[in-house]
């Protein structure tokens, strides 16, 4: 009955089977250790899991960095695993296009986020916030020490708390408040108190005690049902409040590097070093070895490979700035202006150039592509809620935005721009494809369970929904898989643009996981030493269980090795894996068609065809 219910309930979800199996484990097998049930789903599934958590609790100190926004144990690995902080080159200061765009890209993201929160709080979530204030006022009236707190003062205190709250939600229950939740609440209260304009700062002690439910544990005659209702209801409020203000507003206002604007990520996350990555993986083995690793979902802001292309801009910063300045000059006459307001705005123009880098087709642009970019531009503008919005659309601005998109993509009107853009986009497409292969190998071999969103088996250059929910051509994928079952890597690399190389690599990696299930399910993780001048461009590690072991090496920051994205990297790497003799002897190439014996641990040999290598024992 349970099986039938879940199959029916999630039959339309592309990840129904994975969700169902994990939920059955999460719900009905309480004897399983908590760390084996941790979910690390990607963007969009946090709210769903919140509703089925029951009383299972995962310590919040396990959450890494900004992924704390998601539910406990729910982590989108668009940070350490993918481009967002590992494959983007953080060793350079990103040079932004021109003076026209400087004020758009250099502004403090914290200020952008607060502005977005205020907009959402005063519009979309205003009614829900009023309910919370009224409930808090009724609770305060229950005791002589707090009944003098005026409703407007309680409103302002709660407003500051919401503005300072850094996560999606806490998990206070009728049974109490955990130490981790208490630390989050007290930290937020302290930040709100510092902004308080008034002498009645003790109001924050009352708000804190209401949030933690300490209010009804002191023997005071406050209404217990009301107090519980408030503590639970505000947690249902902060989740959508964060989603609407961060994901659906701020991400569409802050355009520094769009690849970082991803659900579960953060636009200002610093890049991870190789050492940081190893530390994260050690933590994951200890705390959530069976966590799900997602790089794309129905709710991500762009396709996983489009994201990689955009992040490749961090390796070409000066060149990117020069080209954007050039494109600005080419397209200046296409920008409409009325009453001193331009359409598109400077921010939207800069956003469009990045979006085009991510989605640029590997074949000539057609009408469908233009319509996709139009739809993206309109949605992004409305989500940002500055020049136009869903609640109050500005027809004139939107008309100018659509006209601009059509004009810049019209070869008859704008050939110089398209020629320049095409030349640059070819370079970021190559760098992005190489990074995508690295991302794929990491996802499939690092600790955890890799998740593959349907349609991402080949290059995924989709934009935000509904563009990433288009029907998938499974027949063509099945035919390509059958034709490339025995991967010919030199042939596939020479035709990397058609995406078969990603499909073949995915197939081989999943086959390897099937052949060595115990190793990838419960195997240990250990960094592998890399020596040589190019060692900082290589990440290597070993997974092992019993007598089985797998050695993985992947490349990153490949701008120099590709001459700035002009050509596929060859065997000119100056680095070597340093493995214990017993481990290094007898390794075989897990990606080759016949498991050829590995003759050398030099990276130039291992990366002769691909920027990745997977070696296995036996």
Q: Could you please describe the fold and organization of this structure?
A:
The chain is an alpha+beta fold and about 625 residues long. Among the domains are: about 110-245, no CATH class; about 500-618, no CATH class. Helix content is about 50%, strand content about 5%. It has helices at about 1-10, 15-30, 45-50, 85, 100-105, 110-120, 125-140, 150-165, 180-195, 205-210, 225-245, 275-285, 305-310, 315-330, 345-360, 365-385, 395-410, 410-445, 475-485, 490-495, 500-515, 515-520, 580-585, 605; strands at about 290-295, 335-340, 340-345, 450, 525, 530, 540-545, 550-555, 575-580, 590, 610-615. The strands form 4 sheets. It has a 5-stranded antiparallel beta sheet. It has a two-stranded parallel ribbon with strand order 1-4. Helix 6 (about 110-120) packs across helix 11 (about 225-245), helix 7 runs antiparallel to helix 11 and helix 18 (about 410-445) packs parallel to helix 21. The longest helix is centred in the C-terminal third of the chain and has 35 residues, at about 410-445.
Write the layout of secondary structure elements.
Blueprint: H1 2-9, H2 16-28, H3 46-50, H4 83-87, H5 99-105, H6 109-122, H7 126-140, H8 151-164, H9 179-194, H10 203-212, H11 224-247, H12 274-287, E1 292-293, H13 304-311, H14 317-331, E2 336-338, E3 341-343, H15 346-359, H16 367-384, H17 395-408, H18 411-445, E4 449-450, H19 474-483, H20 489-494, H21 500-515, H22 517-522, E5 524-527, E6 529-531, E7 538-545, E8 548-555, E9 576-578, H23 581-584, E10 588-589, H24 603-606, E11 612-616
